[in-house]
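FAQ: What does the model actually see?

It sees only this:
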Amino acid sequence: MSRYHALAAHPHADEDCLDKADATMRRLQQRLRRDGLKKACSWHGDEADMWLGMLAGGQKKRFNGLREVVRQVQVETRIIKQWRRRSSSLSSQQPLHQQVKVDFDSWESFDAFHIEGACQQPLTQVFMSIWSSRSLDLFSRATDDGVLKFIRAVEGAYLDNPYHNRIHVADVTHAAYYFWSHLSAQPHMEGYFGEVDLLALLVAAAVHDVGHPGRTNEFLVKTQNPLALQYSDRSVLENHHAATAFMLLKESGVPLLDHRLVSPSQDAIKARIVDMILATDMAHHRRVLEQMNTEVKVQATTQDINKLILEQHLLHMADIAHALRPAAQHRAWSEAVQMEFFAQGDEEKSMGH
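And it is asked to produce this:
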């Protein structure tokens, strides 16, 4: 509102445009009062901020003129209408996926192995629980049914490897969300992240190992596996995961990346997801760390850190975070990855290597 007043006081302000902005602002304020879109009377304390934070991806938007102010207010009005529809139907909605209670806000009590044992759909449970809790259905144009269809297709495409399987991806998806949510809650990161950033990270985490054959990139390259030939020996698995994910998305017909904001475009979100997946290649471990360290050193504030570099770092960190889990879980993950490596070693022996 203060930015609006500053523009309104500008000596070169267009009178007609100013009148329209004034009228639109009054209508918006009336709507806000009528619908109670304030912290004191929303579903919970940060509901209004979350809704309006969607508009600019969490960043503070700068306006170049009064016409942009009018356009922004019109977008906010559409958001408020959607909020009203949501509030009227929220009480009657039941989660489509709910089979197991997922404590995704806790690090110590989260256990992907327990979720697997309870329902054999750990990724679906984790992804859809976060999706519902963060009200991403209000941001994405995809229906809950459509998202559920897609994420089940993704989970079904994970193979029964000892380590790179649906349990691992559920664990990584939770870790990525946990790191993201706790980082965004820090006072010095206020307004840095928006729902579009969570959408990109959540999807990237869910698909980052889809179709993994249980063999390393080095093995695929040295044995001239068709995948290695297809991707010219460069980040073979990671390129395969990204391609498989977006093929599944295309086949599902679910507009998962289509959203209610003016920007960013679906292509831009897709590019970010692909870059995050590629950053999980351990061959890029040093580069990912060095880029993040450089950003922290050269930027004046944390708000200036390159978001694309940070989100790649977050997913890469989540991918290897089982060492931070409770000891029993870390031991189980360590044994699983050993089994997968030993299976590869047995295959290498059978090939005469």
